[in-house]
Amino acid sequence: MVMSYQLLALSAAIIFALIILLVKYITKYVVKDFNSFFFWTYVSVIPFVLFIPMRYGLDFSVDMILPIIISSILLTAGQYLFSRGVFLVDASVISPLFQLQSGFILIFATIFLGERYQLLTYSFLLLMMLGTLFVSVTNKTKLKGFMQKGVLFIIGMQVFHAGANVAVGFALRHTSIWQILFYSFIFNSIITSSYILLKKASITWELSKIKWMFLRAILLLSANTLLYKAFETNVSVSAAIGLLSSPLVFVISVTLGLLLPKFLEKQSLKIYAIRTIGMLMILYGAWNIMKLS
Questions:
Q1: How far apart are CA 159 and CA 141, in angstroms?
Q2: pTM of the model
Q3: Distance, C-alpha 213 to centroid of its chain
Q4: 175: which DSSP letter?
């Protein structure tokens, strides 16, 4: 029996949740400098995608390679912003902000892929965006939390990655997910490595540290494979489901914040209550969007 695209996207969401928690752990305790984290983000995936041409061969045409290049540029730009923001923002804030990406994808899919939705769908998108105002509140900045530098970095990432996912939608019209995964990670690694070389930045090669990035790489490749497979049926709805990592990350982060405040993050009960309201708004909006689609 073929797995439904909704289940594929939901499986990707669970893995993405684990990645967010792992990344927050890595940036706090293991790889603490931006350049090393940014470099290993994509380079660590290369050993795991080399099997693709051996198993599936390689395709090449302008129609499929151009959107993959565009996707790679947007992905890497978004990852640059994420790599900046992850050092500044709590895990319980990062994940809900990912829901904004589903809104941007819906807009881009409407404009570029011709996917059409009810007016009510866009109303629920606005509700989700309002929810992000609440989840980004902190003890220090209170309701101005939405304007934190780290929050703005993560929101910027969502715009770039939304565009990247739409570009993947175009590429899927001309090739398979395996070709997209292979070329994307190769291009991403080239762009990232070029940035490090041009900047002449020093990076860590310590196995004790970068082994965590390779673990993240395995999870990232698995999640992207599931999500791109779901994209073959529907881009915007799959993206919305695939970004539902928020509840799992939020619950774990809040629980750890209350029980082990020095581990990942620490906020007051009041702040976590406000973030919970925002989370519920986001989930309610996402759930209704899926029902209407």
A1: 24
A2: 0.80
A3: 16
A4: S
